[in-house]
TrEMBL record:
Pfam families assigned to the protein according to its UniProt record, in alphabetical order: HTH_1, LysR_substrate
CDD domains, per database record: PBP2_CrgA_like (cd08422)
Residues in HTH lysR-type domain copies: 37-88
The organism's place on the tree of life at top rank: Bacteria
Keyword Protein biosynthesis belongs to the record: no
Alphabetized UniProt keyword annotations: DNA-binding, Transcription, Transcription regulation
GO molecular function terms noted in the UniProt entry: DNA binding; DNA-binding transcription factor activity
Name the UniProt record assigns to this protein: LysR family transcriptional regulator
Family: Belongs to the LysR transcriptional regulatory family.
């Protein structure tokens, strides 16, 4: 018998890529999908009990699935104590590699279920900046749910940066400039910014005719979620110019800034959606329109996915149509002419 190995081009030899692909596929098939799902749930929720609640099974069933997965992988994925559950370094790496794939599978299943069952249904977790969420998004939810009664919506108000994966956010409303290439950002309307004051303040202190005159006024400022105080922005000669006021009052809530200005306590730069109604009513007066920045927007954002679930598609379309139909712009007719 000839026991010599087959030459590289012999049909008996196995090319590296097909064999390795087959081995990988076989190993993946042998690994419990239920164990991977249980692992993702525990990693997301932070403990086995909450993961069980999310999956609709008992804590012990989750623990058994994860244990089986660890045995199959030959790797410890969690550090468990009586008080906490945390990922090992191997667990962190495994989560990073597999959670996106599981999410895609879940989305595909949801999409097929929606096609089979009819009208869009399910749960949406939506995040928005606090001011825009209160003023614009929340009032539109009743109309959306009347149109799509099978969809439940949880609205989270947060001025911080949205983490779609960790916070399990489906859709987010963001303001300003979008520079994150990892998400799809669809502009709803431009974000107009204007310096405003109440008539009572104007009668006592007047209005600035130039940016340099702002230093002589009582300014009301906004502290961002990052902890940094918002710098007022202007466009001068085609270039951005920032102004950091010495504020008499500072709030970390945009509505409180508005209320202070309406009360005649000072002057502030605010977004058009906040002040448009007050400009029409005459309870606010705007100034320095010739320096208003024009590169900001209000955006509806979501992760870049090839197949959006029906509930997300109809929500994005509904909000886009209805927000654009709102009269939120600070029209030139409401702004004083500057000499």
């Amino acid at each position: 018998m000839d026991n010599r190995p087959s030459p590289p081009d012999s049909p008996a030899s196995c090319a590296p890529s097909p064999c390795s692909a087959a081995d990988s596929l076989a190993h993946s098939f042998a690994t419990s999908y239920a164990g991977v799902v249980a692992f993702i749930a525990v990693a997301s929720e932070g403990n086995f009990a909450k993961a069980g609640d999310r999956l609709g099974i008992g804590r012990s069933a989750v623990s058994r699935s994860v244990q089986k997965l660890e045995d199959q992988l030959g790797t410890r994925l969690f550090v468990r104590t009586t008080r906490s559950t945390s990922l090992t370094r191997e667990g962190e790496r495994f989560y990073e590699k597999c959670h996106a794939g599981v999410e895609r599978i879940v989305q595909a299943l949801d999409d097929m279920r929606e096609l089979r069952q009819g009208p869009p249904s399910g749960r949406l977790r939506v995040c928005s900046t606090v001011g825009f969420g209160r003023k614009v998004v929340a009032p539109l939810l009743s109309g959306f749910q009347a149109a799509y009664p099978g969809i439940s919506v949880e609205l989270v108000l947060d001025d911080g940066v949205t983490d779609f994966t960790t916070d399990r956010i489906d859709v987010s409303f963001r303001n300003g400039r979008m520079e994150d290439s990892q998400v799809i950002a669809k502009q709803l309307i431009p974000m107009q910014m204007h310096v405003c004051a109440a008539p009572a303040y104007v009668a006592m202190h007047g209005l600035p005719q130039d940016i340099d005159e702002l230093a002589g006024h009582r300014c009301v400022d906004f502290r961002l979620a990052s902890g940094r105080v918002y710098e007022w922005e202007f466009k001068v000669g085609g270039q951005m110019r920032k102004f950091a006021p010495r504020a008499m009052l500072t709030f970390n809530d945009a509505d409180l800034v508005l209320q202070a200005v309406l009360g005649g306590q000072g002057i502030a730069q605010m977004a058009g959606y906040q002040i448009s109604d007050h400009l029409r009513a005459g309870s606010l007066v705007a100034c320095l329109p010739q320096y208003a920045p024009d590169d900001r927007g209000h955006y509806i954002c979501y992760l870049s996915r090839d197949h959006l679930p029906g509930r997300m598609r109809v929500f994005i379309d509904y909000m886009t149509t209805h927000i654009r139909a709102l009269d939120l712009q600070t029209l030139d007719s409401f702004l004083p002419k500057q000499g």
